[in-house]
């Protein structure tokens, strides 16, 4: 049993979840409990999860909003949009673009099947598969990445759509262009102000693009993802564990003379095969300078090889990368994601995100990687993917 700061006590007894208020006890649904729990921890959560959010965190954010509506509280969150039903792609593309542009790199959450006064009204999850690709067709070049989860409830299904906005600015097509009376404006950068969508002004674009002036650039030189099956004995049974290893060689180019620091906990990695799987949870994410082996003589005149940093401008600690100028950087990560072998011959896409200290918008690097033949020295590998120009 535990008492929270707002005076309610949580207890579990005979599989019943109860919230004991100051004036009595009431049995609540798990959804209500998690909504209230998240309400109390949200400020800390909001500070620490800007770079990456798990499905659980998205659902918790959703339940917090729903809980506020059901309690009659207006969910004052400029990053959240509520829709009772799916809106036509032609109309909603401009709304999403305007919301994403004004968010300036922060993630935004759209809840389909939620009314701002009635709460949950329900929406059909099946419509998403056709809806968002059509929405994307109204964007010029690039639309925000969308991550969706289905949240069932006894009142209906809520579809939560989390949009990444770190690739702004987003530009949409003018659907009236080319039609009689449609005018000469072909493209628009929408901007959300309050609950309204308007065209972005010069000052809006300056605020949106200003962080990019100081943003360092990275060139992906090499990129390799490998899948290994590791066997080990447990309780007289042999178990197979899948292990993914990602390694990339990058070249960092600062755009100013200041020192750049990139904390490892502000880095993330995504690997995906379209309509098959996504790997979002990685461990041991590291950025490091290049190294070389040098022959070292110790006090006993014994010679041994020793690893030595091979960079004058790039250094790293256990926690961050420090760059004093341009240089070569290694990015590595591991994952225990279990996958079927049907993806072995499929091309994949990887996306690296890094948020340097002092920046609001993360650096995003995307790369297509392709199946590569496994050599005789790599028999322990189940699959291997590299950049196209790495296959020589």
Overall 3D geometry? Answer: globular
How many DSSP-defined strands? 28
Radius of gyration: 25 Å
Classification by helices and strands: alpha+beta
Q: Which oligomerization state do the chains in this entry correspond to?
A: single chain
Distance between the termini: 62 Å
Strand ordering within the main sheet: 19-18-26-27-28-15-16-25-20
Number of helices: 5
Per DSSP, what share of the residues sits in E-state strands of 2 or more residues? Answer: 35-45%
Task: Describe, in plain words, how this protein is organized in 3D.
This protein has 392 residues and is of the alpha+beta class. Helix content is 18%, strand content 41%. The chain contains five helices and 28 strands. The strands form eight sheets. Strands 19-18-26-27-28-15-16-25-20 form a nine-stranded antiparallel sheet, with no helix packed on it. Strands 1-2-3-4 form a four-stranded antiparallel sheet, with no helix packed on it. Mean pLDDT is 81; it is low at 1-28 and 38-50.
Descriptive key words:
alpha+beta, 9-stranded antiparallel β-sheet, disordered N terminus, 392 residues
Q: TL;DR?
A:
The chain is α+β, with helices and mostly antiparallel strands. Helix content is 18%, strand content 41%.
What is the topological layout?
Elements: E1 2-3, E2 9-13, E3 16-21, E4 24-27, H1 30-48, H2 55-70, E5 80-83, H3 89-103, E6 108-112, E7 114-115, E8 119-120, H4 128-136, E9 146-151, E10 158-163, E11 172-173, E12 187-188, E13 190-193, E14 196-199, H5 202-213, E15 217-234, E16 237-253, E17 260-263, E18 267-273, E19 277-279, E20 283-288, E21 291-297, E22 303-309, E23 314-316, E24 320-323, E25 327-335, E26 348-354, E27 363-371, E28 381-386
Parallel strand pairs: 5-6
Antiparallel strand pairs: 1-2, 2-3, 3-4, 6-10, 7-8, 9-10, 11-12, 13-14, 15-16, 15-28, 16-25, 17-24, 18-19, 18-26, 20-25, 21-22, 23-24, 26-27, 27-28
Helix pairs in contact: 1-2, 3-4
């Amino acid at each position: 049993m535990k008492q929270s700061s707002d005076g309610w006590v949580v207890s579990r007894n005979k599989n019943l979840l109860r919230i004991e208020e100051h004036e009595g006890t009431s049995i609540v649904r798990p959804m209500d409990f998690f909504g209230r729990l998240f309400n109390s921890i949200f400020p800390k959560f909001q500070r620490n999860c800007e770079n990456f959010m798990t499905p659980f965190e998205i659902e918790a954010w959703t339940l917090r909003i729903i809980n506020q509506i059901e309690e009659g509280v207006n969910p004052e969150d400029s990053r959240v949009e509520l829709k009772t039903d799916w809106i036509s792609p032609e109309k909603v593309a401009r709304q999403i673009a305007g919301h994403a542009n004004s968010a300036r790199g922060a993630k935004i959450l759209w809840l389909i099947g939620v009314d701002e006064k009635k709460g949950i009204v329900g929406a059909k999850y099946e419509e998403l598969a056709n809806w968002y690709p059509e929405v994307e067709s109204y964007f010029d070049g690039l639309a925000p990445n969308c991550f969706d989860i289905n949240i069932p409830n006894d009142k209906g299904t809520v579809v939560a759509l989390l949009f990444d906005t770190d690739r702004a600015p987003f530009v949409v097509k003018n659907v009236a262009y080319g039609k009689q009376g449609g005018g000469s404006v072909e493209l628009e950068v929408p901007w959300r102000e309050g609950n309204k969508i308007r065209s972005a002004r010069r000052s809006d674009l300056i605020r949106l693009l200003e962080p990019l002036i100081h943003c360092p650039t990275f060139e992906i030189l090499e990129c390799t993802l490998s899948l290994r099956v590791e066997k080990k004995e447990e309780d007289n049974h042999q178990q197979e564990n899948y292990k993914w290893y990602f390694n990339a060689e990058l070249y960092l180019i600062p755009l100013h003379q200041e020192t750049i620091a990139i904390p490892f906990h502000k880095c993330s990695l995504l690997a995906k095969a379209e309509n098959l799987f996504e790997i979002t949870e990685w461990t041991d994410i590291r950025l490091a300078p290049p190294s070389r082996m040098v022959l070292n003589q110790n006090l006993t005149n014994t010679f041994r090889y020793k690893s030595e940093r091979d960079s004058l401008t790039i250094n790293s600690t256990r926690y961050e990368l420090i760059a004093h100028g341009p240089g070569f950087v290694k990015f590595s990560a591991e994952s225990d994601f279990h996958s079927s072998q049907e993806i072995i011959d499929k091309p994949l896409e990887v996306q690296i995100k890094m948020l340097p200290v002092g920046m609001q918008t993360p650096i995003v690097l995307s790369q297509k990687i392709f199946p590569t033949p496994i050599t005789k020295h790599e028999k322990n590998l189940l699959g291997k993917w590299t950049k196209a120009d790495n296959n020589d």
